Amino acid sequence: MKQQYLSKTTWRKWINVQKLSIKIPYAWMLLFLIGPLIALVSISFSEPAYALPPYEAVLKYVEGTYLSLKFHISNYIFIFKDSMYATVFLRSVYIAFLSTAACLIIGFPFAYAIFRAPPFWRNMLILLVVLPFYTSFLVRVYAWSSILSANGPINSMLMSLGFISQPLQLLYNDAAVVLGIMYCYLPFMVMPIFVALQKMDRTMLEAAYDLGCKPLRGFFTITIPLAKKGIIAGSILVLVPAIGEFVIPELLGGSRTVMIGRTIWTEFFANRDWPLAAALAISMFLLVIVPINYVQRANDYNEDEVSNKNQEADHA
Amino acid sequence: MRKKLFNISILFFCYALLYLPMINIIVYSFNASKITSVWQGFSFKWYKAVLNNPNIISGLFTSLKLATISATVATIIGTLAAFALVRHKRFKGRNIFESMVHMPLVMPEVITGLSLMLFLFWLRDFFYLPAFSGITPIAIAHITLGVAYVTVIVRARLSDYDMAVEEAAMDLGAHPSKVFFRITIPIIAPSCVAGWFLAFALSLDDVVLASFLSSPESTTLPMVIFSSLKMGATPQINALATIMIGVVLTGVLLAGLYMYGKQRKAMAKEAVL
Amino acid sequence: MKLAIKKLEPWQNPNEEPYISIENISKNFGNFPAVVDFNLEIYKGEFFSLLGGSGCGKSTLLRMLAGFEQPTSGKIYIDGMDMTNIPPYERPVNMMFQSYALFPHMTVEQNVAFGLKQENMAKSEIKDRVYDLLDLVELKAFAKRKPNQLSGGQRQRTALARSLAKQPKVLLLDEPLAALDKKLRDKTQFELVNIQEEVGVTFIMVTHDQEEAMTMSTRVGVMEQGRIRQVGAPREVYEYPNSRFSAEFIGSINLFDGLVVEEERDHALVRDEENDCTLYISHSASVPLGSQATVAIRPEKVTITKTPPKTDRNFTKGEVEEIAYLGDVSIYHVRLKSGKLVMATVPNLQRGAALPIEWEEEVYLKWNSNSGIILTA
C-alpha cells in the first residue's frame, strides 16, 4: 500500500515538472510578444510630442494625484486622410503580388521539373534549391544589385554585343525589387509545391489516363488541382514577408519604391513620429496579415482526413 | 525523350538563375580592380582588407555571440513549448498559447522589431525598469522568433513518434524521469539540434530586427554589411560574401557527409544482419 | 437430358473466339523478369481472376493490359485489335485501382463523370449515365459528397461506378476488395459478381486471396514467378491441381511422394516407402512404371479413426499432435512415424459432443481411391 502511495506522489511531482513546459514558454511569449504588441497598440493611440520619448502616453500619471487616460485616434485619421499612405499600402501589396506571381511562374515549373526528375536525383536537386537559402539574405540581395548595376555583367555584356551604347538603369526600380524578392523567396515557393506534388498519389494520373484523359489535360485537371494546397501555402509564404519587406526595397528599389516596411522605418527613425509608425504597423497588421491568415487557415483544413463516422455506415 | 529534354532545360534555367548571381560574386571577389565589375586580374587583397576591417571583425564576434545565446535559449524554450503542445492536449489557454508561439512566423519583422523596441522604452520610462542594453534587446527578439521555428520542428518530431515507446519503457519499470532522459531526449535530440541550427542561422542573418534594436555597441555583422551596402558596394563585400558562402557550403557538405556516413553504416549493419 | 441443356462454357467451345489474347508477353524491369513469355486467352463476359502471391507479376500483367507498362516483347489483343502500342487513354479498357485513386478534389458525381467528359459527350447525357451508375452501386444519395466524406465501402463503389462509366470492353480490377474489412469483403464479393452479371462487361481481377478468387470468378489463373501455372474453373483448380505449386497455393493439402508401382488405364498404384503406405488412385498416372510421383490429398477427404482399416492401401498411421478448433470444423495434425505431418479436417456436426479423438492418441488416416490425385509437376 505504502509503496503505491509513494509512487503516486513521484508521478504527481513529475507531472508538475511537465507543467513547467507550459509555463516557461507561455511567460516568455506573454512578456516579449504580447507585451510589445500592447505597447504598440497603446502608443499608436497616443499623441506625438517633442519630448523623450517623443509621445504623450495614453495612460499617464500626472504630477499630483490622478491618472489620466487619453486616446488619440488622430494617427489613424492621418493615415486615412493622407493619400500618400494609401498609395504606400497599395504599392506594397502590388509589388508583393507581382513578386509572388513571379515566384509562382518560376517556382511551379521548377518544382514540377524536380518532381519529374529520376528519384535518385530528387534529394540532391532539392538540397540545391535550399542551399542558397542558407547563405546570408543580404548576400543574395547584394548579388542582384551587383548583377544589375551600371557596370555589372548584364550591362557590360549588352554593351560589348553592341545592343546598347549607354548602360541601362536596371537598378533602383520596382522591377529590380520584384526580381530581388522573387530570388530571395523562391525556395519558399518551390518547397511546398514540391511537397504537394510528391504527396500526390501517382495512381491519380494513371486513373485519369485510364479514363481517357490525355496527359496535357490531366496536368490541368488533376495535377494542378492536387497541388493547389502547395501553391497556396507557397504563395502565402512569399506574399506575407514580401509585403513587409524592408531590406530589398532599400537596396534595390528607387525613391519611388516606397513600401510599408520602409515607410514605418522612416517615420520611426527619420521623422521620430513614434505614434504614427505604430499606427502604420497596426494598420498593416490588420489590413494585410489578418486576411492572409484566414486564407491560410482555410488551406490548412485537411482534405484527406476521413471521419470515423463514415466508416460505421458500412456495417449499418 | 522530348519531355525529358524539356524537363532538363527547365532545371538548367532555374539552377542558373539561383546560382549565377552567387558565382558572379565569387568571381569578382578575386578581382584586383577597385571598381567591382571591371576585371583587372586576380588578387586576394579584398580578403586581406576584410580580415583587417575592425568593423567587420567586431560585427562578426557580436553576431556569433548573439546567435549562440539566442539559439540556445530559443531551443530550450521552443522544446518546452513543443512538449506542451504535443503532450498537453487540454490546458487553459491552449489555443492562445499555440497562436502566440506561431505568431512570429507570420508577423512581418518590421512589426516585431518596432513593437519590441517601443515596449523596451515603455518599460524603462513608465515602470522605471533598468534599460536593457548591449545585445539583450536583439537577443530577446531573436529568441522569440527562434522559439517559433524550434517549436515547429520539435513538435513535428514529437508527434511523429509513437507514445507507446515511452509507455513500454514505463511498463518495463522505468521511472518517468528516467524515461524522459533515456528515451524521449534521445529521440527528439536530432530535431532540437536542427532547430538550434535554424535559430542560429536566423539570428546570424537578421537585419530588420537588429536595425530596430541594436545600439552602437552592439552592431551585428549583417548591420555592418547593410550599412556599407547602402553607402555603395565595395569589393570587400564580395570577399566577405564569398567567405560566408564558403563557410555555409563547407558546413552543409560536412553535414551531408556525416549523414551519408551514418546511412552507409546503417546499411552495412543491415547487410551483416 | 440435363447435360444437353447445360450451356457449354466458352473456353470449352472450340468455335468461340477469345475476346482478349495475351500472346508471348514478357516484361523485364532492369534484369528482373516480372512476366515471362505469358500466354492467356480470356472470353467475353468472363470474370477471370489472376491469383498469386506478391511479386508474382500479376499486377504487372494487369498494368500492361491497362497500358501503364509497355511489354518488353509480345502482343495484347482486345476484341481483335492490337493494343500493344496504344496509350492507356485510348484503350477500351478501364481499371479499378487498389487504392481506388478517387480524385479528392471532385465529388462522387464528378469522379464518375470524369471519363465521360473526356469524350465530349453532351452534358445531359453524362448526367443521365452518371445517375444510372450511381443507382447501380446505390450511391445516389452521396452524389455531391467528396471522397473524404465517404466510408471505405462507399469509396469502393464509387471507384467501381467510375470505371464502369465508359462501358469498357474489359474492366481490370486490382485487388478491389483488399482495403475493406473481412465482413464487408464477404458482402461485396457477391455484389461485385451481381453487378458484373448485370452489366455484362468482361472482368479481369488480380488478387492474392484465393477464397476471393474461388467465389467470384468463372476461371482462375494461378501465377508464380511471372508464369501461369494453371488455368481453370475454381472447382477444377481445387480438385485437379496440375502441379505441386497450385495444389499447395490453393487450400491446404497433404502430399505423399512415392514410386509408381502399378500403372493401368483406369488406375495407378504409388508406393511411399518412407511412410509405409500404398496409395491406390482411380486414374492413370500417365508416367512410366517406376518413376517418381506425388499424390495429393485434400484434408477434408481424409477420415480419421481409431480402428485399423481392413484394407492394405490408402491409409496410414500416426499420432495426434495438434487439434485446431475452427468452429465449423476441426483440423487434426497427425505426425507419422517418418516425421511427416498429415492434416485431416473433421466437421463438428454435433454441439457439445466429447472429442472422439484426443491428443497423443494413435490414429489411422484413410481416404477413398478417388480422393488422391497424382502430380507429376
Which key features would you list for this structure?
heterotrimer; B: 273 residues; MetI-like fold; 2 domains; 80% helix; C: Rossmann fold; OB fold (Dihydrolipoamide Acetyltransferase, E2P); six-stranded mixed sheet; 9 helices; 23% helix
List SSEs of chain B in N-to-C order.
HHHHHHHHHHH
> Runs of chain C with pLDDT <50, length 5+?
1-5
Give the fraction of residues assigned to helices of chain C: 10-25%
Q: Which CATH class of the largest domain in chain C?
A: Alpha Beta
Q: Give me the CATH superfamily of the largest domain in chain C.
A: P-loop containing nucleotide triphosphate hydrolases
Molecular shape of chain C: elongated
Q: Could you say what the CATH topology of the largest domain in chain C is called? A: Rossmann fold
CATH-level-4 superfamily name of the largest domain in chain B: MetI-like
Largest sheet of chain B: none
| CATH topology assignment of the largest domain in chain B | MetI-like fold
Lateral arrangement of strands in the main beta sheet of chain C: 6-7-8-3-9-10
What do these coordinates show?
The complex is a heterotrimer of chains A (316), B (273) and C (377). With 316 residues, chain A is mainly α. Chain A has a domain at 82-300: MetI-like (MetI-like fold). Chain A is built from 14 helices and four strands. In chain A, the strands form two sheets. Chain A has a two-stranded antiparallel ribbon. A two-stranded antiparallel ribbon of chain A has the order 3-4. Chain B has eleven helices and no strands. Chain B is globular. The mean pLDDT of chain B is 85. The longest helix of chain C is centred in the middle third of the chain and has 18 residues, at 182-199. With 377 residues, chain C is α+β, with helices and mostly antiparallel strands. The two termini of chain C are 37 Å apart. Chain C has helices spanning 2-5, 58-66, 108-117, 123-136, 152-164, 182-199, 210-216, 234-239, 244-249, and strands spanning 20-29, 32-42, 47-51, 73-78, 81-82, 93-96, 170-174, 202-207, 219-224, 227-232, 254-263, 268-272, 277-281, 292-297, 303-305, 315-325, 329-336, 341-347, 362-366, 373-375. Chain C is built from nine helices and 20 strands. In chain C, strand 17 and strand 18 form a beta hairpin. In chain C, helix 3 (108-117) packs across helix 4, helix 3 runs parallel beside helix 5 (152-164) and helix 4 (123-136) packs across helix 5 (152-164). Classes of the chains: A mainly alpha (316), B mainly alpha (273), C alpha+beta (377).
